[in-house]
Amino acid sequence: MICMGELKGTARVAWGSKAFEKSLELCSKAPAKCSNLRSGYVAFSRASFSMKLPFFLLLALLATRPLAAQTPETAPATHCLLVPLSPAARVARASRIVEAAVTESQSFRATDGRIYTRHQLQVFRQFKGPAAATLMVLTEGGTVGLRREVLTNTLQLQPGQQGIFFLEPATVPGATAEWQVYGSEQGFVRYDLTDLSAAEPFRHYEALDDAFYAAVAAAAPRLVQPNVALAAARQLLAEPVAARPQAAVITGLAPLSLTAGTGAVLTITGAGFGSSRGTGLVEFRNADDGGATYTRLNDDDYLSWTDTRIQVRVPALSATGNPAGTGPVRVTPNGAGQLPTLSPGIVTIVFAATNVRDTKTNQRAVAGHRDLNGEGGLTFRFEADFAANTAAAASWQRALDTWRCQTGINWTLGPTRTKTGVADDGENSVGFDTGSQLPAGVLGRTTSYYQGCYRPDGSVAFYVHEVDTQFDDAANWQFGPAAPVFPQIDFETVAVHELGHAQQLSHLILPSAIMHYAIARGQRSRALNPASDVAGGRYVLRTRSFRPDPCGPAPMLPAPLIVQQATASSGGVALDWTTRDECNLSGFVVERAPLDTTAGWQPVATVAAGGSGNRYRTLDPQPLPGLSYYRLRVRRPDGSSDAARPLLVTDETGATATLRPFPNPLPADGSPLGLQYGAGTASGTLQVLYYDAVGRYMGGTRLSYGPGLNLLRTEPPAALKPGYYLLRWTDSNGPKGTVPLLVQ
């Protein structure tokens, strides 16, 4: 993430040094002792770069009191790929300036095929433009059914949020009387009613008073309707301390190091939380803005709540749409008039796996990657103007190789595309913007497109079906390989970070990580952090991307593997596979398993890397009788390995398409039916028809499958009673057959 603004400072402590660690410990135990450094900055240095980051990064973890409003020239870095907008220019460009709250949000697909979200605003005060009680505002991205678009460095609003909006007429195709936020994220000054503060990407405001309104909106407000929530917050904070309920006390956080979006659980111990949650809240620092604001948990993140102990999941997609970040935890006890308590210690979020939310069921899931190009993964394509900039193209290719060779994600670069612009068109584009495609102050962003589906058990699964990246062609880039100098922006640093979003990782407050929320001008940070970036990328790949799933296309193959095939003959079963651009590879292990894989996988052969022409073959001369599975494990130099999707073969005449229902017998209680299908090397659809013992048609279904082994689930027809049935199946690629099914 790249944030602009000159960084200069007074206090200088080496990142990772004992002095810095002692400073962290001192400030966590006695924040008051850090008060004299609140306006200072810390110089961090590591590996191949030296950067000056504001002491705010430390205080974002530890401070109990927000910073005052700051100008772009002195503001600490807080946001990626953004250039600070002048407050005066923002006021001048906005057609309307209002204080308002988001009351409703609804996504839709516009005439250009992109997804946008329409938000209804309840207006409280008008600073510029004609007064209106309600307004409609459009933002880019959103969810329609099980399709979702998410753009980095782009404003996302949630119902319940309020603040000051700088608006201009919407440019979305088909928009009429609707508005959009000028400058995207920088056009919304968000209120925190807990402490009556406000924040935007480059500024933080301590108080919502007349001076704040004059500084932000440059005009006296005109009342449109009362802001009840704001008035209640003012009244609560105005009460004498003696009249307030006794504050809660936080005595412990465990564990102190966690991941976000993975189901990790934090336990908070103390006293005075309340016997049940009720109106109680737990909040983490917001990793998207470096902890300038807090992010609230979703209701289903709360696991237990007693007066002395709270357990919560750590979200990568909170109720406010942000990932939890490193820093203290804030707890508001249950009960009227309660004020929040800040933990004396901090939790460290080492990586955040991006979550996608299903708006129908409110489920969240980590999105996996799929084999979308028939060669194991996803192919990016440069636009013509980007490809013509050979330095930019080489820099971006190095960034892709960084992720591919350290996590095993199967990405490659294809031919230059003929189209331009960002669109949900099946092409993964990398290009420069033309005209005003990017919002004011935005230097670049990545769009991830998701497709979801429901498994037979009702759980939701999402996968990435396209990624587009766009950069500002007018920015002061250093394309490398030379190091940047201030005020240049290191393009490879930015590309590695944005590809981290494509890898499905969210922001962190962790300066040593690529996914840290901020990057400064002149900073060179091109290497992944093994404990954070690499670990997070491998988590997504190994728990989602490389595993077969009944939802979506075939799973991604671990790089550098691009083709695998198992063939049976009279001499045994031969496995053939091909790789491309080998890296992070020490060899392969070939394994097999009987049809019931619970019996375990047996090693068949070990093959060293460095095959002739990147082609490999091994033979199993004594295969198991009947149907069995084979799979490759790609061995990494660090001793770990990644399993490719299994292949189903028979010891008779080669790869065989065979359907096996399970459980069989099937309980007559409406339980879902599993279908184990061993396909060939192509994807397709499977039609399954149910007939009873006398040949009467009982119903049917059509299912999509991927190459190799598929474990599918479906709901059997409701009319099935205990008895004997036949399943007649037809594969769109040709094979067909009939198998018995017993229901009892």
Tell me what you see in this structure:
GO terms for molecular function: metalloendopeptidase activity; zinc ion binding. Residues 465-535 form the Peptidase M10 metallopeptidase domain. Keywords: Hydrolase, Metal-binding, Protease, Zinc. The protein has 744 residues and is mostly beta strands. The chain has six domains: 1-59, no CATH class; 87-238, OB fold (Dihydrolipoamide Acetyltransferase, E2P) (Beta Barrel); 243-352, Immunoglobulin-like (Sandwich); 378-438 and 453-545, Collagenase (Catalytic Domain) (3-Layer(aba) Sandwich), CATH 3.40.390.10; 561-650, Immunoglobulins (Immunoglobulin-like, Sandwich); 658-743, Immunoglobulin-like (Sandwich), CATH 2.60.40. 13% of the residues lie in helices and 38% in strands. The strands form twelve sheets. Strands 6-7-29-30-28-26-27 form a seven-stranded mixed beta sheet. A hairpin with a 7-residue loop joins β17 (281-286) and β18. α7 (390-407) crosses α8 (491-502). Mean pLDDT is 85; it is low at 1-78.
In short:
With 744 residues, this protein is mostly beta strands.
Beta-strand proportion: 35-45%
Helical fraction: 10-25%
Number of helices: 9
Stated plainly, the CATH topology of the largest domain is called Collagenase (Catalytic Domain)
**What is the correct CATH architecture of the largest domain?**
3-Layer(aba) Sandwich
CATH homologous superfamily assignment of the largest domain: Collagenase (Catalytic Domain)
> Structural class of the secondary elements?
mainly beta
The total strand number stands at 47
- Distance between the terminal alpha carbons, to the nearest Å? 58 Å
Radius of gyration: 28 Å
Sequence stretches where pLDDT stays below 50 over 5 or more residues? 1-78
- The pLDDT mean sits at 85
Number of domains: 6
